[in-house]
Amino acid sequence: MSLALAEEPHQDPHVAFRADALDRVEQLVLPYGYPLQVHQVVTEDGFVLTLLRMPYGDDSSPTASRTALDAAAAPRTSSSRRRLHGLRGAGAAAAIKTTATLQTAAAASTASTSATARTTASARTQADSATRSSTTEDRSEPAAGRAGGSGAKPSDICQGWLERSHPGRTGAAQRSAGAGAASGSESGGVGAGAGAGGRPVVFLQHGLLDSAAGFLVNGPGRSLAFLLADQGYDVWLGNVRGNTLSRTHMALEPADVRFWQWSYDEMAQYDLPAMLTYAACTSGVASLSYLGHSQGTTVILAALAGSGGEAGAAPRPPSLPPGLVERAVLLAPVAVAKHITSVPLLAMATLNTDDMFSLLGLHEFLPSDALVAALEGGLCALQPYLCVSFLAALCGYNPDNLDNSRLPLYLSYTPAGTSVQNMAHWAQAVRARAPNSMRLFDFGPDCPNGRCNQLMYGSLQPPRYNLSAITTPLAIFSGLQDRMSTPLDLEYLRESLGAGVVRLATVLEAYEHLDFVWGIDAKEALYDDVMRFLAGPIGPNA
């Protein structure tokens, strides 16, 4: 992965809409008094990804007042805007940390046990205590009390990343992620030990056609990002390539077909390593916890597994550094999709509509520009069930477990878009002749355009992901009514993983795919158990 800077990365022509997408995410957080930082990192293949960070929780109580719940869609105060914009920086390039910054990070985290670093940490803790309530002070050291259990130092992770990304380079002009994002009590700095103010770090990764907003839309006391921040975690939220918050590339514009030539393979190979390593280095930890929903589980499984070298294909090692992910929570996991009952995906697979899209020159799937315009015209306010019908058909949700008054809000953030090639990859999984395999994208046998299997992999068939190679402790939470993550496909996943890897497995009888992020009872039915797994010792397999 690379953090090399280009002064003017190519951006979507609809720059104003992209800025508005970030502004709308801000509306989900800042009115409640929570901090929000915006970071950007460049992948090895040039995509500029937007990361959000909530370094600590509410200033007053773990659950925060819900009187401002609907204020998420109201105009922000000028002070709220300053809090975000001061951290956002002056553009994509200005928000990317350079080699020198991470070099400093490695040195700082190595020296974190020195008297100077202890004094700095003490001063930061005192500053937190002086401005926040005792409840928040208690949350600054959660029950887990750990900075990561891999045994590695933050400096080892960051230095290894630097050596792989920039061999022989020792310095460059420092560029920070906006004013104050590299230091200070809110960001924690890179030498802060267990993340901001001594907190363990957790990384949340959204699902298919979603964005980081999925972990925020139900507000404090309900959405997982807020709950984790209130429990004392340094919370990072990722956005994969191509969604409304990560539509920038260092050399390509979204109008270029090459911008969209990727699937979840590239998310696992490039996006996760860039985002997770950046989060760990910025927070000053050697390892972190990971939580993914839907496709967010697919990409972490692929990144941890690597692919085998069967049928002449060159083996591909896991894309994440060993020990970087201490444990992972999989919500509605999808490794294969052979037995899904999602009508849109079944239609794409049966009718080969993914190929039809490509022939028609369509490369982006469900961009949300037009949908947002329709929402602003009141479509969801008038016909909320019509508005959500496609997502319901694709993923499924339980209407009895949904705050119907918030459907317009949900649909203003989702769908967040992806590539047609990514949807084609899912269609391939449905069509797969061999159900018991999770494979890389199938480029087919024809090589005139240079993108056939033989040229891409060295084999006629796409390689399988080697799920048995995963050793990271996992917790699996699934729904019995889920049309994307079905019991039969989950059985394959469990059988493919090594003995002892799954430490907790929980099935929620009434849950469908979107209930894991939208469900009004998710805290009691799901998130409390998730937080216990994250905070507790890693026990025996389920």
UniProtKB/TrEMBL annotation:
Keyword Transmembrane: no
Keyword Cytoplasm: no
PANTHER family with a match to the protein in the record: LYSOSOMAL ACID LIPASE-RELATED (PTHR11005)
Xref: InterPro entries: AB_hydrolase_1, AB_hydrolase_fold, AB_hydrolase_lipase
Domain of life, source organism: Eukaryota
Protein's name in the database: Triacylglycerol lipase
UniProtKB keywords: Lipid degradation, Lipid metabolism
Residue span, AB hydrolase-1 domain: 200-516
